[in-house]
Amino acid sequence: MATTTAIAMDINDNEDIVSNTDTLIYDDEDIQLLGDDINENNWRYAFQEVLDDIHENKLDDGTRLLSYDNPCKIRVKKLGDTPYTFPLSNALCSRIICEHGIPLSLINTYDFCGTKVTNSAWEIDHSAVDFPLSFTAAIQSQTFEQLHLNTSDLNTEFYLNLDKLIMFGPCTQTKVYNFDEKLFIYLATVLVFLPSYYSGGNYRFIDDNDDTDDVHRHTFNQYESDNSKPFILIVPSDCQHEIEPIEKGFKLLLVYHLVSKTSSTHEFYSLLSKSNNNSMNIQNIFLTQRLNHIFTYWEKNLDKMPSKILIPIQHSLDYTPFFSMLFRDKYRTILQLITTTLKQLSSSSSSFLIYSAILQQDEPFGNTTDSRLLINNLKLLNTTNDFILDLNIQHERTVIPNEILGELHMYIDAYEQSGGRQQTLSNGNVVYRNYSKFHVLVIIPYEYQWDLLLDDYSFACHHLSYMLSLPTNSLNILCLNLLECILRNKTLSILSFDQLIRYFIQLYNRIGLTTKLIQLLKILFQHKQFKDELFSNKILHYWLNRLVECFHSWPMFSMEFLDLFRKSISTSMPTKLNEIVQFLLQFSHKTLGTLLINTLLRYIFKRRGLPRHILLSTCCSILHLLIVDGSYSMDALLTLAYNIIKRVRKTSLANEILDKSFKMYLIPMLINIYRDIKDKEKRIHSKISLSPAFILIYEYCLNTLNYYCISTLSSSSPLNIISMNEALLICPCTSCARLQIFLIDPKNSTLIYDLSLSLTVDHCLRHTLSKFPMLSIEYKHDPCTGREQTLIISKYGYEQEQKQLCFHLRRLLLQLHQI
Questions:
Q1: List of domains in the chain
Q2: 3-state class of 564 per DSSP?
Q3: Given CB 3.0 to 4.6 Å as the disulfide criterion, which of 289, 400, 547, 640 pairs with 31?
Q4: What predicted TM-score, i.e. pTM, was given to this entire model?
C-alpha cells in the first residue's frame, strides 16, 4: 500500500481555517500508534469500533433521472417495425393493451371499506416489445454504478433481464401490486418510469426491510418531476408497490430484474470477496490498517483469543442476504475490508480462513429450552495450497455468544420476537419470514480449523486416530492442531482424558518432546474437567503413569504436575480424601509419588504437627497411605498411630467407641491396609513385613474387642421404644392399641398378631408400623395357600446389638487374612 504523507501546517489560535475539501489525510505513523495497545482485554472493543465506523449507505437516494440523452422509443411487434417515441398517446396505449395486455394481479382485492377494487393495470410480456440497445445499456450502466457492480471482475457476472412493461390506466382507488412472480430468484428489481401523459398516480414501494419510520422516503411523483424524462429506481425483489389513483392518461413502467450468473449465495459472497475494488476511500484504508493490527495480534496470540469469530453480514430485518449485500453497503464493506486486510498480512495467505455460513437456532421459536446457536452450510471464500477440511453442506457447529461480533442483540431480538410471521406472495405461495437464518462470516486461524469438527467429539477423535495410524510424518502438525482444538474447546461437555493421554504418548513417540507438545500438556493440566477427574477416574490412573514415564525427562514436568496436584487437592479436600489416597497408592513413579505425598501432608498439616481440627477419618487415611507407601520412617508412623489411639480413647462410652471409631474408621482402615499390602506383594513379587504402626493399631483394636465381648456393656436404654405421651398419639383402634401397649412395655420384646381377613383389608396397623423403623417385622405364610398367616413384631435392646457388633468386628480381625 502506498504511504500517505501528512501535511504540516502552522495554525494560529485566532485564525479560522476553511478547507475546500472533506478529504482527511492520515500519516502511517498515526495509524501505527493505534495498534500498539491491542491486547486480550480490548481487542473486541477495537474490532467492534471498526465495524461501527463503517457507515451504512441505505437505499435512500430514491428515484434518479436516467442518464439517456436520446428520445425513448419502443417497437411493438404486432404493430409493425415502426418505432414509437415516448410519451405514447392514449389511443396507442389502449391498442397495445388490446393486443398484448394481461391484467396485473392485485394484492389489495378489497379496500379498507370492503369495496372490491377494480383492476386497471395490464402487463405486456417482454417478448411483445423491443427497446433500443443503447437504452437498455444506459439502464444497466446506471444500475451497476448505483450497486457498485461496475468493476471489471463483477460486471460480467451480472446482467439485467427485461421482464415486462406495465400500463396503469385511469382509476379512483389506490392499488398495491407485486411485480415479481418468484421469490429469491432475482437479486434486485429495476423500475424505469417511462415518459407518459398522465396526472396523479404517485408511486411508493413498501420496504419491509426498512427499520425506520420514514415511509415517505420511497415516494415518487413523476407528474410533478418531469413527464418527458425517464427515471430509474432500484428496489429489492418481492417488495410491494403502491399506485395512487390516476386521474387521466396512462402511467408506463418497465420492470427489469438483476440476475447473477452465480448459482448460490456462497458463490455470490466468494465473487464479492475476490473483487479487486480500487475505489477504496481514505477512510476505508484507515479502517483496513486498524483491522490489520487486530489480526496481527490475533495471529501472534492464539491462546488469548477465541478459536473463531463470527461477523454478521445480513441485517436482522432482511429475509434475503442479497438485500444486505446490495442495498446495505455496510455488510459489503465489511466483507471487502476483511478480505483485503487478510491479504495484506505479512505471513502466509493461509494464516486465516474465511468461510461464509448460515447462523440459526436449532429449536423452534417459543421453545428455548436447551436451544443453541449453530452454523452450517460453510463455504470457504479464500484459497490456499495447504490442507483444508472439506465440510459438507449438512455439517453443523455450535457457537457461543462470545464468538459473535457485531449486531448479536438484533439477531436475538429477531429470534424471540418475529417468529412465524406469514406472507402471501403474488403467486399464492405462503412463506414464513421468521428470520430464523442469517448469513455470517466465519474467520478462523488455519491452526484452529479443526474446531469446526468438534460438535461431534467422537468424529474428531476418529480423525486424530486415523492420522496417527498413518506411517507418514507429514500429518504431525495437523495432529497437534487437532489435539489443541479439542483441549481448547469450550462446548464439549464430556472429554475422554484417558484417550487424550494416549494421543500424547503417540505423539511423543512420533515427534519427541517438542515445544508445541509441552504447550498442549500445560493446557491439559489446566483443564477444569481434567482436574475434577484426576482422582475419581480409575481408568485415567493407568494412563497417567504411562504419561509420567514418557515426559519425566522434561525438567519442568515435575513442577507442572505438582502444581496440577496442588490445585486438584484444594478443590477435592476433604470429600475426596480416600480417592486421593488410592490415586497416590497406585502412582508408579517413586520420586514424583513421594513429592505428591509430601505435598498432601503439607496441605493437611500446614499449621502444626497434628492440629485438633483434623478429623479422625483424615488421620486414618493418611496412616493408610504412609504404611502402604513404605517410604516414611517408623517413628513418623508410630507417632501418627499413637495419635489415632489417643483420639479414640477420649471417647469414654463403649458404644461410641464401637460405632464411631472401630466400625467406621479403624477396622476398615486395617482391612484396606492389609489388602493393599498383599496386592503390592503380588506386583513386586516380594514379601513385605507389616509395619509396627499397623500392628499397634491391630492389637489395640483386638484387645479392646476381646474385653467388650467377655464383659457386660453398660447401657441406659430400656426396651421401650416410645414414651407414654407419645403413645397417646397412636391410632386408638383395636390392633393399634395392642401395639401401643407393646411399645411402652420394657419387659415385653415380642408381639404376635394372628392375621385375619379384616386385618388384610384394613391397613391401619400397617400404616402405624411404618412409623417405627426400629422394629423387626416378620410375616409367616400359610404353606398351602401362601397367604400371610402370622405377624411377628420384635424389639431388641441396644446392649444386645452392641454385643453382636463386638463379635462381628472381632471376627473380622481374626480372619483378616481371609478377607
A1: 40-264 (2.60.120), 273-363+371-416+434-445 (no CATH), 719-818 (no CATH)
A2: helix
A3: 289
A4: 0.68
